[in-house]
Amino acid sequence: MQQLQELGHWAICLFILVYALATVLGIPGTVLTIAGGTVFGLVWGTFWSVIGATLGALGAFWVARYLLRDWVEYKFRHHKALVSFNQAVMQTPLMFVLAVRFAPISPFNVVNFLFGLTPISSVEYTLGTFFGIIPGTLAYTWLGVTGGEALQGGDRLPFFLALSFLGILSALPLLAKGKKK
């Protein structure tokens, strides 16, 4: 912790860079988000994690769009799941990204590449990703903050509240799906 404080603003830049690169490489960022809460606190940890995750998601999106798209379209052009995903994106692009991103249970890194294979604009994708991941990022960051406090002998109730918030966010898509039936 002392070494990070000595780095000052460079610690933030390093955190965002590592987070973005990990996301482009497909490495789950959950641990980084929790660490961001421990190191930077709830507000700044959430903010820096959202920035890093969004930059990484955009990088993965571009990798899929410009390096993998032709090959994937050739191999999986008629795959039912990809066709359905493309249709949903074309109907309401920004709202679809927001809906997918809002629930922290969707596989973030897989979704980054999938969106790159669709015709969605990078602006709609980036906006939807940035705003859509805030609730889940907040929940994981809160876990980092409260988990660190609980491990140091502090009150455990905030940790369980953060865990409950994450559980509720994760269950929302299932609850919404149940209401549609």
From TrEMBL:
<dbReference type="InterPro" id="IPR015414">
    <property type="entry name" value="TMEM64"/>
</dbReference>
<keyword id="KW-0812">Transmembrane</keyword>
<feature type="transmembrane region" description="Helical">
    <location>
        <begin position="125"/>
        <end position="145"/>
    </location>
</feature>
<feature type="transmembrane region" description="Helical">
    <location>
        <begin position="88"/>
        <end position="105"/>
    </location>
</feature>
<dbReference type="Pfam" id="PF09335">
    <property type="entry name" value="VTT_dom"/>
</dbReference>
<keyword id="KW-1003">Cell membrane</keyword>
<feature type="transmembrane region" description="Helical">
    <location>
        <begin position="47"/>
        <end position="68"/>
    </location>
</feature>
<dbReference type="InterPro" id="IPR032816">
    <property type="entry name" value="VTT_dom"/>
</dbReference>
<protein>
    <recommendedName>
        <fullName>TVP38/TMEM64 family membrane protein</fullName>
    </recommendedName>
</protein>
<feature type="domain" description="VTT">
    <location>
        <begin position="27"/>
        <end position="144"/>
    </location>
</feature>
<keyword id="KW-0472">Membrane</keyword>
<dbReference type="GO" id="GO:0005886">
    <property type="term" value="C:plasma membrane"/>
</dbReference>
<feature type="transmembrane region" description="Helical">
    <location>
        <begin position="12"/>
        <end position="35"/>
    </location>
</feature>
<keyword id="KW-1133">Transmembrane helix</keyword>
<feature type="transmembrane region" description="Helical">
    <location>
        <begin position="157"/>
        <end position="176"/>
    </location>
</feature>
<comment type="similarity">
    <text>Belongs to the TVP38/TMEM64 family.</text>
</comment>
